[in-house]
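From the shared-data thread, chain only:
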Amino acid sequence: MSTWKRQALWAVGLGAVLAAAACGGGGEGGGGGSSAPAWVKDPRRAVFEGVQDTRAFDQLIGDPAVLFEDGGYKMYYGAVRIFGTPTPRISVGLATSPDGISWARRSQPVLSPGNFGEFDGLFAEAPAVIRRDDGTYLMFYSGNNGISYRIGLATSPDGVMWTKRGVVVDVGAGFGAWDSKSVSDASVVRVGSRYHLYYSGFSFDTNQALGVGLATSDDGVAWTKVSVNAPIFGPAGSTDELLRGPAGDEGSLQPFARWTGSQMELYYTWRNRATGRPPVHIALAVSSDGISIWERRGIVLRAGPDTYDDVGVMAPAVVEVGGELTLWYMAASTVRQQNISRARRLP
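Structure, as tokens:
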């Protein structure tokens, strides 16, 4: 179960709260090598919040996926209704903005969970959206049926009306597979003529920390895993992977990949393995080929000290506009509220 979902369930007494505060700042810690670029949080704090209405589908929000096109922003996000419904279900919402500050949201989800028994019959969340050269939008999302997460695909001609295409990255086969229980939190990036899909994976038989897996594709539809025996990144005894949670609790690394032209930047959710306790931060690792020899750069964005993100900053999504990088993320709070915030990278 993803970190932000645990927060959502906790808000109605169904899960355990992540509770702790952290000092602000960034750039150090996390077992990093070379120093990471500094990021500065937007002084507005929350730039997008859930709707305080029992009829709204997006009372709590998280997992932002942001596109900049045609001079404006599109934000796809995970949305959960927990009040006014007997069973919380997670869907995908869409909001648009001319400046990344003032947002107009659609009143209904653009992607909803499937029917009972389908792979996404309970949750459809954690969207990752790209636009191919032919104009088709592809949305990769995490579907859950109450047992496991799998990564599904939906396509759209306009980014609004979506058609589901089924599972494209499945759990590993057999108890020996490192990702035999769940695959989720897709991040898709184009490298040359191929697409790379990074994801969080979790083992069914070992119930241990998550790692990041990779699948590749020529068209964004048919995918082949690069490694079936081990993750390409973590845990391998490192200090900065998520510690195993309570039985059945999968946690999440929530990777976001950005290809610079010469190296792959992998932003991910960080929590100290030694303590297994919040707060949760965002860290960075880099690789020349996006597959092997990852250099950990440490924490780039820390939780707190303000109460709007004192539990954690997580689910990173980096967007470049006019040569400037913005990191969108979910901020979790001890006051039972979640929002989407942003930070700018210093030159």
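The radius of gyration is 18 Å.
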